[in-house]
Amino acid sequence: MSQTLSTDVLIVGGGVAGLWLNARLRAKGYATLLVERESLGGGQSVKSQGIIHGGAKYALHGALSGASEAIADMPRRWREALDGSGELDLSGVRLLSDAHYLWSPGTLAGNLTSFFASKAVRGRVDQVKGEQLPPALQNPKFKGKVYRLAELVVDVPSLIARLAELAGDSLLAADDIQPLHDNDGQLVGLRVDGREIRAQRIVLSAGRGNADLLASLDVPQPAQQLRPLHMVMVKGPSLKPLYAHCLGGGPKPRVTVTSHPSADGEWVWYLGGDLAEADGVARDEAAQIDAARKELSQLLPWIDLSTAQWATLRVERAEPAQSGFVRPDNAFISDQGALLVGWPTKLALAPDFADRVLSHLERDGIRPAAHPALPELPRPVIGRTAWETAF
């Protein structure tokens, strides 16, 4: 039998939420060990658009919802971390854009939506024109309105790499994860590839993987819901950077565009929003690409897509099950004794997720304890983005 390890907090799931939590705990003196069965960030994190939302897109009907209030402080906290002055030092992480934009294509409904959004987010929106416009919209044919949001867009692989650095020796690649109980049947840790790891608290932050982990632990709650998306990627020499929600007349952005650099110097546009939701999920790849092509040709007719390459990606965002399948407003943590089960529900809410775990530890009087140094452990690799493998 391999040597038994001990730690204060054992985290399962190496997406941004788990890695952020790991770094926060280590900064506060806790011994941690983070276990990942696949690649770091390889689930939902590298499939996200990297937008650090401040809630503007949830306010498109002119009223701030619980979601927009809860998330409003996230851009500030991320910005401070990226500046090296926040709760974590993320100063080496690549910032793709210092702002995200709301973009109305010029329809009456879109303009009204922009107007209400600008009122709802209480001065966190400024209209931009001319050279202040995103490069892709700086064209004489563009007749819409654009509002600059106090949000930002990060390069997720760069973020994961930095969080992995902050993890030091606390990362463990694993294949098999099983519960570890004491003689009274209480969960005291996990058996990872046959090695016993004991911990004061165990945190599940594995996104979609939480459901399988809970089943293996014979823990029926909390239940999980999956919110499917059918994202579109387009790569071509005519694309210029664009980070924006294109508004329609409804409560959701018509399309959300983020831009990501590829190895050959061209830009890849990653398309989400309403395009990727219900109707998009029902389409096959060819139909979804056709729908995206029509959307872009209608919204941005001056952009030459004749030589563009296209691909799609299906994503299942994992969340705690909610009545009516609504989207949770905040990060979520469920207390199961020594087991804490959580979902950040959104990339931007990783700091909120860590706050909630720390609050549970403080409530339960869990303090850093002395543990033997960890041996050299096999480390998980960093996940690759979809556009790295698609093009």
TrEMBL record:
Location of the FAD dependent oxidoreductase domain: 8-315
GO MF annotation, one: oxidoreductase activity
InterPro entries, A to Z: FAD-dep_OxRdtase, FAD/NAD-bd_sf
One of the record's GO cellular component terms: cytoplasm
Gene3D superfamilies cross-referenced by the UniProt entry: D-Amino Acid Oxidase, subunit A, domain 2 (3.30.9.10), FAD/NAD(P)-binding domain (3.50.50.60)
Keyword Transport: no
Entry keyword set: Oxidoreductase
Pfam families noted in UniProt: DAO
Record-given protein name: Glycerol-3-phosphate dehydrogenase
